Amino acid sequence: MLVSTLMTASRRPRSVPNDQELRLWKVGRALTVTFVAAILGAGCVFYSLVVLLDFQEIDSTAKLDAKTLFDLVKLSFGVVAGAGALVALVVAYRRQRVDEAGAHREATRLHTERFSQAVDKLGSESPAVRLGGVHALAGLADDAPDHSLRQTCIDVLCAYLQLPFTPDPGNDPAHQEEHHRYLAFRNVRHTILRLIGDHYRRPQGTHRSWQGCDLDLTGVTIDCNTDFSRAVFSGGTVSFDDVVFSGGAMSFDGAVFSGGKVSFRRTTFSGGKVSFRRAVFSGGTVSLVDATFSGGTVSFDHTTFLSGKVFLDGATFLSGRVSFGCAVFSGGTVSFGAAEFSGGTVSFRRAEFSGGRVVFGGALFSGGTVAFGLAAFSRGAVSFRGATFSGDEVSFTSVRFFGGDVSFGEATGPAPSGLLAAVITASVPVVLPSAWLPVNP
């Protein structure tokens, strides 16, 4: 059953932009067309030389002498000889293409044989054999003759992670064997995640690099320390939708999200530590829509949001700590629309909102602590329109407004602490709800 599921994943239809199929004419047809074209070309040259060469110097009664005619014939035969060389070139080109296609077919055949053996290993009842199958598939992806075959290997590894697994029966003596078996199979899953991180760190275009390939981890449970630090997600589609990060540490430190689409929709960050420190979001689209951050620590400290779009609409920040300390929002769009900050601590201390557009429209700030202390708003547009502040601690102490467009219009609830003092000292207008404006005695 396991093998059947994985083979189904490998048969997903994919377009092959650079296929190796031969689309050449048959040899006889190609040679005939080439030779006829050469004869016609030679005839045209001969006609041009006879009729047009020194035409003005030959009157209607003049005749070409034998020497001139002989030179023209030699030149025509030279053209025919050149045509013969062209025919030989066509034959050599076709032979090379046929040889290349044959080599590709042979490489594909060998790849398919090894692929079937590796998938069979993934269905083994032995954890050690499955682990061997994982490494075999990763090696096949590295050596694949084309992008499509590499993508197929990656798809199978992702499909294995998506399969349901038996939960840990516990470490009591009555279930000792089942517990050890669970740990062994969990190690297989963790190995796949480690190999994925390793391959996405390698520069694109080099051997063993998977950058630019699709990565589908939808619905996977990640319950271990996983390292995607310095990984580059450039092009392709990467999905962490509905993934549950529970326990352990998940690192995207220094990762680059550039081009393509990366999705964390409905992802749950529960317990443990998830870090995007010094990550760069540049181009493409990154979606954390409806993600849930509960317990543990999530860090976006020193992260840079450049061009592209990052969506955290509908995200829920519950207990634990989420930090955007010293993050730079410069260019592109970052949206926290309708996000809920409830419980725990969310910090934007020393964050820099410079250029681009940052939206907190409709966000709900209730419970816990949200701090924008020492943040700087300069250029670009930042909107809290329609946000709800329900009386819990939201601090704008020592916030600096240097320019751009900052609006709290239609926000409800008491004004965040420190906001009015920051607005009074600001050199640019900041739109506030009328209920927040100070009343002159």
Return Rg in Å. Answer: 34 Å
Number of helices: 7
From the N-terminal CA to the C-terminal CA, the straight-line distance is 79 Å
Structural class: alpha/beta
The helical percent reads 25-40%
Shape, principal axes of CA atoms: flat
Q: Major beta sheet, specifics?
A: 10 strands, parallel
What strand order characterises the main sheet?
A: 1-5-9-13-17-21-25-29-33-34
Total number of β-strand segments?
34
Give the low-pLDDT segments.
12-22
The mean pLDDT is 83
Give the strand content. 15-25%
Protein name: Pentapeptide repeat-containing protein
Keywords: Membrane, Transmembrane, Transmembrane helix
Transmembrane segments: 30-52, 72-93, 358-377, 419-439
Feature tags:
7 helices, 5peptide_repeat, flat, 441 residues, alpha/beta, ten-stranded parallel sheet, eight-stranded parallel sheet
Structure description:
The chain is an alpha/beta fold. The chain contains seven helices and 34 strands. It has a ten-stranded parallel beta sheet with strand order 1-5-9-13-17-21-25-29-33-34. Strands 2-6-10-14-18-22-26-30 form an eight-stranded parallel beta sheet, with no helix packed on it. The chain is flat. The chain crosses the membrane at residues 30-52, 72-93, 358-377, 419-439. It comes from Streptomyces changanensis. It holds the Pfam family Pentapeptide_3. This is Pentapeptide repeat-containing protein.
